[in-house]
Amino acid sequence: MIYTFAQIGAATAMRVEDVSLKNRRLSYNQRHLRTGLPPERQMIIYKYMDAITLNLVLDSFRIAFAHPSDFNDPFDRPRVSRRPYTLEYHSLFTGELMTREAQAAEADEAWNKCAVSSFTRTHDNALMWAHYADKHKGAVIEIDAREAGLTSTELLIPVQFGSVIYMKRQNPEESLARGFDALRSQAVTGGENRFEIRNYEGLQRLFLTKPMPWSYEEEVRAVCSQFLYRWDDQDESFEGQWKRIVKADGNPIYGLRIPSRSITRIFAGLRYENLGMLRERCTREGIRLMLPINEPSNGYEMDFEPDPYSDR
């Protein structure tokens, strides 16, 4: 059979197109596996806060990350056990004897150089409104996690991998020790401080487990490692993405800068006091303001509707 140049060219073009499509599919699958989130998929999360914190967020467009040692529940954080560290050794770098206490202290330093920000999957949880939104005098912000950079694998744990596991009993000590080893391999030894799927199970045991009574929160977390960042004399990271803020009690928090467009809606509490100012801020920033319905149609369930005066 004799083929014309046109037929040969068409067949070659089809093969090139097939290879290109295969490469695009491969690239898509690689990105999906690396980030845990398909490129076109939107991930919406929520954060409850009082009115003062809401104003700070709208002034700076930063989301706060805090050290685990500052959590309000002392059981909701990694607790280093001295028992798993059974062997003592001499450090290759300093020659010092690394006792069990010294190894545990090193693990303490590693996890407390990380910072955590907590979010939730729902905006209408009555307990959360009472506990975290100042008895309905605060608000809930709706965040597009991808737009906010919270799905970035530059984080130690991005939010798409940050679902909290609620447990009746704490992880076994040996399990926690493996988690500390995973963290230490990334942070203390100067390795990568970004998300690595091979270390996910260990990091999950450290940062993503919580006592069962907290399950009503449906919490999702993002974790960053402050080993990644260098700070200037204004307490900002050199690339400007983070700002370190020392609170009145002397403990630092870390503010991640997010684009204004990543806050898609704000839900005002039933007792929110300065609604006029919030309405102006939402109109100026292009954020949809949602107001509570005084008489919900479904009993105790909370309902919201768009504010007719600021609806974009």
Sheet of most strands: 5 strands, mixed
Please indicate the percent range of residues in DSSP E strands (runs of 2 or more): 15-25%
Counting H and I runs of at least 4 residues, what is the number of helices? 8
Oligomer: single chain
Fraction of residues in H or I helices:
25-40%
Question: What general form does the structure show?
Answer: globular
Number of domains: 1
Radius of gyration: 24 Å
Mean pLDDT reading: 77
Topology:
Elements: H1 5-35, E1 44-49, H2 51-60, E2 62-66, E3 89-90, E4 97-98, H3 100-111, E5 114-120, H4 126-132, E6 139-144, H5 145-148, E7 165-167, H6 173-186, H7 200-207, E8 209-211, E9 219-225, E10 242-246, E11 252-257, E12 263-268, H8 275-285, E13 288-292, E14 304-306
Parallel strand pairs: 7-8, 12-13
Antiparallel strand pairs: 1-6, 2-11, 3-4, 5-9, 6-12, 10-11, 13-14
Helix pairs in contact: 3-6, 6-7
